[in-house]
Amino acid sequence: MEKIYVDPLDPHYILELDHIWIKFGGLIALKDVTFKVKKGEIFGLIGPNGAGKTTLFNIITGVYRPTSGKVFFDGDDITDLKAYERVWIGISRTFQNIRLFKNLTVLENIMTVFHFKKLQKWGPFFVKFLDIFPYKWWEAGLALPKFFKFEEKLEEYALELLKIVGLEDYWDWKASSLPYGKQRKLEIARALATNPKLLLLDEPAAGMNPQETSELMEFIRKIRDEFNLTIILIEHDMKLVMGVCETIAVLDHGELIALGKPEEIKNNKRVIEAYLGEAI
Amino acid sequence: MDLSFIAQEIINGISLGALYALIAVGYTMVYGVIRLINFAHGDIMMVGCFIAYFLLLKLKLPWPLALILSAILTGFVGVLVDRIAYKPLRDRGAARIINLITAVGVSFFLESLFVVVLGGVPRAFPVPDIFNKEFCIGNVYISMATIATIIIGLICVSILFYIVYKTKIGMAMRAISVDFETTKLMGVNVDRIISFTFFLGSALAAISGFMWAIQFPSIDPYMGIIPGVKAFVAAVFGGIGSVIGAVVGGLIIGILEIFIVGFLPDLAQYRDALIFLILIFTLLVKPTGLFGEKLEEKV
Amino acid sequence: MNWYLRIRKLIQKKFPNNKFLHRYFGLIAFIIVGIISLFIGNHVNEFWQRLIILSAIYVIMAVGYNFSNGVAGQFSLDPNAYAAIGAYVAALLTMSPETKENVFILEPVMKPFDKIQLPFLIATLIGGLAAAFSAFLIGIPSFRVRGDYLAIITFGFGEIINVIANNLVSLTNGALGLKGIPEYTTLAWAIGWAIFSVFFLWHLTNSQVGRILKSIREDEIAAEATGINVFRWKLFAFTLSGFFIGIGGALFAHYLTTISPQVFTFFLTFNLLIIILIGGLGSIVGSAIAAVLFTFAFEILRVFEEGIHIGHINIPPIPGLRMVVFAILLIALMIFRPQGLFGDKEVSIK
Fold first, then answer.
1. Distance of alpha carbon B67 from alpha carbon B209, whole angstroms
2. With an 8 Å Cβ cutoff, is C318 touching chain B?
3. Domain parsing of chain B, residue ranges
4. Residues of C in contact with B85 (CB under 8 A)
5. CA C179/CA C184 separation, integer angstroms
6. Mind listing the pLDDT tens digit for each residue in C239-271?
7. Is C230 in Cβ contact with A141 (below 8 Å)?
């Protein structure tokens, strides 16, 4: 594997991981992981169970701090940013075991996300949001006209987003009562509502049938183009990964063992070993 | 400040601490097995006290018999409370906070039930004569009640250890504490084990109540609140769920309380507040306490 | 779908052009309720009038308590502390310097309070702010833990405040408490504050702020992953809740005219807990209704505690009966209807 040099100022890359190590107690979960993700690409992260894929997601989204190493996003060192701050600058994610706001309606699930304070700095799409949510908490409590005006706009925006992902008919359903596939979509929609530049999908096809999986592939491509995103996804469904990803990284026992185009990965000896064991 | 004063304070501290430890062990057992903060544990102790009171006064039983009988009867009260109040929640898989609220309700229920039935006026506990004896070593006094508390406490904790670590039922208890659902699937009669846990915890509460009453022989329906709460602090401090933690925590809290009163008389009125500060401090710095195990949420 | 949206949709359908009504149907309804209760309160005897005032006070405290416990899902057990702080601060500010001199027999009252006397409204607000501030301070360490640990930690703080109220004699007059507090809490004040609290918190619950808090209640990790600063919002909910409970406490002090640490024990917390559980966690209007029901039931059951003599029928007094009834009610609620009588969801705080 060729060596990767991290250059935080290279404008072609949106995310760069620089020699990430993480230890839990004595256990090394990630060992010197270094790679870069190009702007606008769909990047696959694969590996056997327990390889550290979700841990890596947690590091990118700020749930865990790496023991050593740095994370760069869009040229900035974000290693010390908290999880919610990373959402403000444009990193958004979904979870392996869907985490929706179960008792809230579909619409509320989306609306909840429109609450940013630091939006104006980040891109043209957010300036719009800055206009729609400038009321203070006491203005809401006192029910000033301003509050109602923006509340109505907020609903409009949320519905618009639901239309894009095809959930507009379900807007008043309780999130937990949606069918499984729709819950996944809602979670992606909620992640999109933060207007991310980088979207991390943790096993989006888990529990889906082949029909739904191929729909999901289309959907991922569609949102990438429509929202101008970079997408990193963890997935076990090789058909989906090979079909949709432009670059693939393979993790095994916390180590990055391969990085490249799908065809290269398919024929990589170490990858085959990692998946099928040494015997072959 | 002379040496015998310090020795006396230490003895007093151990005496009080042993009481807290005994109550705390009951707390910790129930928490350890089903992760329920049994807010009503102190009130169960009060129930035990009143049962012993009637056995001694009305039936004129000798004290060892009264002690054992009150422990057994209170054990069944505990099982009854579990069956009526907590089991339906467990079957539904209710959130832990619901369990806690219910426990608060049970606590208030027991207190006010006893007020309704027996009135809120404190009664004198008929302390058996044997406990009124005092030994004197130099200038240090040790009462028979203290010695009895320590001896009976040690016996109880040893029996408990034997049950938890050496018997099948104890193994099942430990299994439930690790994984409720799996234990159920393995064919263990979970309800019976939990009932047994409540029985043990409540019986211990009754024994500690008896020991409390022979040291502080005035009993009323609200007597369980303060010891219960302090024993809870002790259990958390020692690491809730751990029996050794409860014993060590109880002793430390007891000694600390006596020391505050003895050496810092200015702060004596604030001792309850200081004990709560210990609780808060423990939960913030090391929520697992001295001997507890770590639990983390997976993302 | 929540009640607010349901009713709003209904009104939008019935009156498609009346935009004012779409927005302020809540305010209109609350004001009507307020006027009706004012009218009733002015035409009944003093016993019932005082009962209405008391229930209005309980409404304020209950909706405040429900805001942090139900809406934000941060289960705390120390509203008695905030009520006490609001009550003591406000009472110290409205009592005349002479009264204070007479009341504080053990130790003279602490420095700034010995000369000050302020109007009722300002004293109430300061009482509320003091409670809010203490909630803020208590919240900072407390929100490092969650669930039942949070409940226990706040219970500890509640008890600490009670110990302080018993012993900080120069401020609280110790166990003797404060006597001779002017009886300023009239029907109008109590109802006015109650309407304001319900209206304010109701709208807040149904705004973006409420949604954020509810999302924290539903799933903290997911909330954080959508950019919510979980800690700050929890602290916000807790502080605001402390403010309203403090206001309730201030009004309570000027209703009782005599307060002591005995008034603000865990017993008060238990009452508020029952109210918000009957009303349904997270339901502001529900807990307001429950507060009224509870207060009336509580006072009516008092009759049994004092004994009844009607003709030849003599029911002897049964002290402690009320608490048995309410404790059973609480346990039964938790077993059979954990979402409360008016709520539509069960708490899911692990």
1. 10
2. yes
3. 15-225
4. 331, 334-335
5. 14
6. 999 999 999 999 999 999 999 999 999 999 999
7. no
